[in-house]
Amino acid sequence: MKYGHLDNKNKEFVITRPDTPTPWINYLGCDEYCALMSNTAGGYSFHRDPKDRRITRFRYNNVPVDRPGRYIYLRDEVSGDYWSATWQPVIKDQRPKTKDQKYEYECRHGMGYTIIKSKYSGISTEAAYFVPIGENIEFWALKVKNDSRKARRIKLFTYIEFCLWHADMDMTDFQYTLNIASAVNDGNLIFHQTGYAPKSGKYGLAYFGCNKKISGYDCDREAFIGPYRSESDPIAVERGKNFNSMASGGNPIASVSLTLSLKPGQTKDAVFMLGVAETKEEAKKIYKRYADEKDVYQKLYELKDYWNAYLSRYQAETPDKDVNSMVNIWNQYQCRTTFNWSRSASYYEAGIGRGMGFRDSNQDTLGVIHAIQDRVKTRIMELASNQFKNGSSHHKFFPLTKTGEKGGYSDDPLWLILSSSTYMKETGDIAFMHELVKYVDGEAEPMYIHLKRAIDFVLSEKGPNGFVLMRFADWNDCLNLGTDNDVAETTWVPELLYLGIQEFLKVAKILRKESDHEKYSAIAERVKENFNKKAWDGKWFIRGIDKHGKEVGSSRSREGGNIYLLPQAWAVMSGIADPERSKQCMDMLNEQLDTKYGIMLMSPPYKEFDEKLGAITTFAPGLKENGGIFCHSNPWAMIAETMLGRGDKAFKYYKTIMPPTKNRMADIHLTECYIYSQFITGRDNPNFGRARNSWLTGTAAWNFVAIANHILGVRPDYEGLVIDPCIPKKWKGFKVRRIFRDATYDIDVRNPKGVNKGIKSVIVDGKKISGNIIPAFKDKKAHMVRVVMG
Amino acid sequence: MKYGHLDNKNKEFVITRPDTPTPWINYLGCDEYCALMSNTAGGYSFHRDPKDRRITRFRYNNVPVDRPGRYIYLRDEVSGDYWSATWQPVIKDQRPKTKDQKYEYECRHGMGYTIIKSKYSGISTEAAYFVPIGENIEFWALKVKNDSRKARRIKLFTYIEFCLWHADMDMTDFQYTLNIASAVNDGNLIFHQTGYAPKSGKYGLAYFGCNKKISGYDCDREAFIGPYRSESDPIAVERGKNFNSMASGGNPIASVSLTLSLKPGQTKDAVFMLGVAETKEEAKKIYKRYADEKDVYQKLYELKDYWNAYLSRYQAETPDKDVNSMVNIWNQYQCRTTFNWSRSASYYEAGIGRGMGFRDSNQDTLGVIHAIQDRVKTRIMELASNQFKNGSSHHKFFPLTKTGEKGGYSDDPLWLILSSSTYMKETGDIAFMHELVKYVDGEAEPMYIHLKRAIDFVLSEKGPNGFVLMRFADWNDCLNLGTDNDVAETTWVPELLYLGIQEFLKVAKILRKESDHEKYSAIAERVKENFNKKAWDGKWFIRGIDKHGKEVGSSRSREGGNIYLLPQAWAVMSGIADPERSKQCMDMLNEQLDTKYGIMLMSPPYKEFDEKLGAITTFAPGLKENGGIFCHSNPWAMIAETMLGRGDKAFKYYKTIMPPTKNRMADIHLTECYIYSQFITGRDNPNFGRARNSWLTGTAAWNFVAIANHILGVRPDYEGLVIDPCIPKKWKGFKVRRIFRDATYDIDVRNPKGVNKGIKSVIVDGKKISGNIIPAFKDKKAHMVRVVMG
Questions:
Q1: How many CB atoms lie within 10 A of CB A752?
Q2: For B187-221, how does the pLDDT look when each residue is reduced to its tens digit (9 = 90+)?
Q3: ipTM score of the complex?
Q4: Is residue B55 within 8 Å of residue B44, measured between CB atoms?
Q5: Strand residue runs (E) in B561-626
Q6: Contact B687 A249 (CB under 8 A)
Q7: Do B620 and A62 make contact, defined as CB atoms within 8 angstroms?
Q8: Can you tell me the distance from the alpha carbon of A216 to that of B111, in angstroms, rounded to the nearest whole number?
Q9: B28 φ, ψ to 5°?
Q10: Interface of B with A in 274-333 (CB under 8 A)
């Protein structure tokens, strides 16, 4: 069963039936205001922080699914029949007995906007939802058309449910929260004025308004919905009239109503807006600014322009149109979304506890560095300010409250090196290393020292076998070997450490820090030597050592989990393994872990709870880390394969987990077919192939790195733009347009001999160059690059 | 609009229509297993602890309201029409166009059980829900009768949704929780076997079964409900067949189905059971024990016997039948419920954060001491073990995990004196003072020393004016004067302290602790002297001092809150005030705070947030502490009035907030008309008269104390049973049967002169005694007591 298709021309995913297997969502807003928006208008909005500045309510994991949302009801004033502009929540039938009762629907998720169209009983609607650039507001711009042959009177009712700002309190402390709400009507506006207090003593203000004169309103949920009813059949809509209720305690909402009289063929507009402001005066000022819908639609065009410019910085033209869709549109879009919101708020992350991840946000920079270098720089410095003087770091932090939490993750600080070096390679801004950033617990030091301390901290955590102590976990959150001991080790963090030191050495060299270079070169060699001596079990690299000193993730492991993806892929990615073992471990990975839906994180799954292994053993087999296809880690195998020169294998892995390939199997995959999910259920579960936790995942950034930098092989380095593709043999070539350090590179790669990898010649602006590094011209001009593989 | 009526003969409240203004609930289970049960079978169950051992799920503050629950669907196998045995969740019409589609309904909330009857399309059902004494199980004993004239085939489907044990995690951490569930079918049982891990490493086991052979089952919510559906229209019921799904990840449920073939007039039984066990073997053993429904109904009769015996320990016969209903049945029942579960889990307390309250649980003992002295003794010692060596105490604690939290409440430790002295007066067990109990942070000491340390701690918290430092708050949780300072004081804690010392002095005297007696007598005098000197503002007693040294709750207060209930009522109750001021302050309370729905906690309400006053100013005017009618504090005014001898006033206050008086105004009151709510909205709110937070409130115990001990005036003291009524003048008399220290007292009070108070004569077993204290006979016999007032 298919639920939709890509529309690359408009940069939209078109959903053609509303009952997608899970809500298929979009993220509106790139600055301070964020709106999670499903294909039937479900979801919620927040300002800056989904935990402490939640604007509207959403009921997670509820039945019926995906409520409430941003609802517009339409009511025929003659028949009394009513329906929704977005299918939910009234849910009219798509295949009814009489044609006249048929509900037609289309949803277009675009770049920062979602348009939902409906047609029912001769009335067509088009609702464009979006958050304009630079404003703390969301618009619902509605067009209603009378497609019937008689004059019609259609009454509109809106509905949103306000959250009392603190999302956790809002869903747990009812004996308190149900007595603090205040929402009132004022002209065509409703103000939600419940304070943020007592925590902060600050007052919040959200407002909802309509640019047309309203004829009624409700601020109290119970009044609007009525007893033992739901959003599907609110009493106010059923009877055709708001109650003009205010909220004093209880549950504040915003419902306004107005009647449109439509001649046959006539279209009318109404714009609704939901926003946050400091004062009512400010809110009213913004409200007035958008009195005319033309000014609202203008903002939608500006939003489209913004995204066109954003995406233009990396555009590819390959023989595979799905690759083009992902690289040019959806993968970039998802990367920006994860960069914006880390893992804080999705349809699976309740927006309450996660905040911004240290490890996550460092990795997320990799997916946006080509487009927004200034923001990346700011973010990396914010991350560095979450580092402690000893080199360790918060695991997560909350920018709004400037608080953070450590969590005992052994890998966290090292990711700062990867993000920093990626930033410098993109920008050439090596002076970044001299930027001063304060520690959580200490005075400011240059970024260069931050990186050095990250390495030093991890080196200080050496375990009995010379690997790194696992502590609570490493990247593999639920493999909790070292919660209660100083014995258990990770073999993967030494790989990350080795790669981190390599990147650090390049910086040290550029900055002419000779003694550092010498010192850390020697350290890296020792890390490498120990790793190769002790982590190889004869068949592949092991995953770690448990608290009893026994191997984990070894071919000899008895409890399951004989082989893990990470140590194999990173052995190659980091360069820590020799060529022979590199090839062997990737072959073993392919043999043991690859499935038709992607590479499992480990195999076989653990069957029962094992306290020495931790939370990984609480998952059902095939789910999450316990034998699931963890999509974040799949690109590491792709990159490793490109390093081995095996472009067919790399591309096969890429294609297997690629969202558009899921479109034909949406009823198995369940989640959105235009963006990545955190994991796909592994082969040891009855639901093999089912994806979970879509949108906010490191999968986005790493797949972009895999395809853009390693498969298509156009990647920045300190000296310039490296061209080093590793593609399927059958590809005859491809093109990439890449903006890099203030110049545009039009790269045309030909593959006449049908190789996977290898450059025969590079011609830049008509002149052959030696090697495969294009200089950084920084001249704001376009440069033609012709590459021949072979 | 009325929704039901009392049935005192059966000790039931009968609800005659399902759409009560809020869910009207009951609590099933008095030991380890608790089931919150609404009049339409909504609610959830937990084992021992609602936070960490939640058995089933409930969606708080949801639309539609009150879901999910313990549902039984009935489906006519010929027509395909389906409905619910408990109205929800299918919600058939009670007033339809055709009589044959009319849904008839009755709910009877009884003592520890709830019976819901339905009749629809010729099929009658009666479902008895209860938790038997001493078992971790709930039964749903169903009878289905064919009242039509033709043979019928009715298919039953059940539905409950399991919670993944940890209620907070279950509703917040979906990226984790949706991947750990496991529920499987085994014969006529479904096992929910998701582990409690990783936190504890322990496995949980809940089971659901049917005593008849089932024909299908579902363990997976999404399979049973179907996409974009709800409990109202599950796809499995609609199509008439379970999917036989197992849960591996996702949301585990228990649905089983079976078909009943019913001849005209025929009745068939089916019993469903939901329980927790350590192992599957144990679960299967219990399941088999109840294969025959006779054994199940036997357990229901035993439960009724248990409650009849419980209630028989205090039975009154007064001229007011509502008083009789409350004293003899519902107030006692609510008292036991609050004693069992403190404030941990209600329809307003999500069962996540509150645990057992130190202050709450001490007060709750006052309402059950006449019936379960051993449990009270155990509870008081558990409370004392939450005291610290310096005399302070936890504010709340979690018995399951044996953890607690302090909260900076200035009154907490003193309540231990009131519960302890009440226990000793009831039992005569003065040796209780020698029981050794450990402190949180120190070795065991006798209870007597625990009480002394409680006093000493509060004395050490003296403020600049000689009152007691407020700290975060006192009883008035949201009056947060002293969060950030050592200046703000409470004038009410000195009253509680004074009363506490008086009770302590009685004990010291009995135990012949002369030096303590002398020392604390002098201290009490100084507390009294300072209080009277500084707390009287000329009109009434003030509430405290703010952090700027200014009066709070004074006739001179500018920001509102000019008068508070507490300092007036406790001035009298504690005996700290002289007779003249006692009378004046209670008259002022009456003038300023009394309304037609009860006495407001303070007046006038604060209008805007004021950080020096705290959370009280975050409530809308008239809600909660901000000018609401806080029912917990109303009996303090009643008791004070009885001490002033003003029985008409005391009884008027009693009647005003008494639940049965709300039956005629249920659409204003909203909550249950058979039990007390925490507060009734005050006159400064548009919703004046609306009650909130029903069931778990100190209101229960204190109203029982007010009516039983002070208005009817039959109260234990060290020397015996005191008879000291203070009643309305128009009452000609009343009777009380009271079990006290192993003897039964049949007390017949006559009021020939129509007085409020005063005893003319007391005749015990035919002999006149001097004074009004009946000796404790301890002879297991009945004694006739004839009292003449005058």
A1: 11
A2: 999 999 987 654 454 657 999 999 999 999 999 99
A3: 0.95
A4: yes
A5: 563-564, 594-595, 598-599, 602-603
A6: yes
A7: no
A8: 47
A9: -105, 130
A10: none
